[in-house]
Amino acid sequence: MSRLSAVLLLGAGVVASALPLGLPPDATFIPPLLMAALVFIFSSLPNPLTAWISFGVGLASDVLSAGPLGYWAFVFLLVHTIAVLYASQRGSRGFASYWGVFAASAVAVSLIGWLVACLYFVGAVDWRPMANGAIVAVLAFPVLVWPFREPLRLTRRAAAAGS
């Protein structure tokens, strides 16, 4: 997948996540955290996204959601950094390891996002929407990564070819 097609797919996701989907209040963070999963995948491909693209996607999310400017940009940049660090050391550890690292990054990003929201609103905010978003993103991750399993070398054939 080229960078341009990744950017176009992320752009469509940003627009879709900004639409009024009629989600219940506890599910409002599901679309942006699914976008974080895509940023993670695209940042660990052989031709990865740059940090600027991840930042720009986050900034576009901020603008379209009318949220605090820089909030999702910071979150997507954090996810990008974790993915790039993992991809540089991954070797052929397999899908379970890849999914586990994403799960850990989703939990970390959700916790940090919640803390930033608490600072922004100067008080404790409800943590459940962010937790629900992280759970759905982790559970949806295998479906999101499936089309990219070959370039990510997450198949037996790709792993055998690399050895």
Q: Main attributes?
A:
163 residues, mainly alpha, 7 helices, globular
Oligomer: single chain
Fraction of residues in β-strands: under 5%
Element pattern in H and E: HHHHHHH
Number of strands: 0
- CA radius of gyration is 16 Å
The largest β sheet comes out as:
none
What is the tally of helical segments? 7
Q: What is the averaged pLDDT score?
A: 83
Percent helix range: over 70%
Give the CA-based shape. globular
- Euclidean distance between termini CA atoms: 23 Å
**Poorly predicted spans:** none
Category by helix and strand content:
mainly alpha
Structure in words:
The chain contains seven helices and no strands. The protein has helices spanning 3-18, 30-43, 51-65, 71-89, 95-121, 128-145, 156-162. The longest helix is centred in the middle third of the chain and has 27 residues, at 95-121. The protein is globular and about 45 Å long.
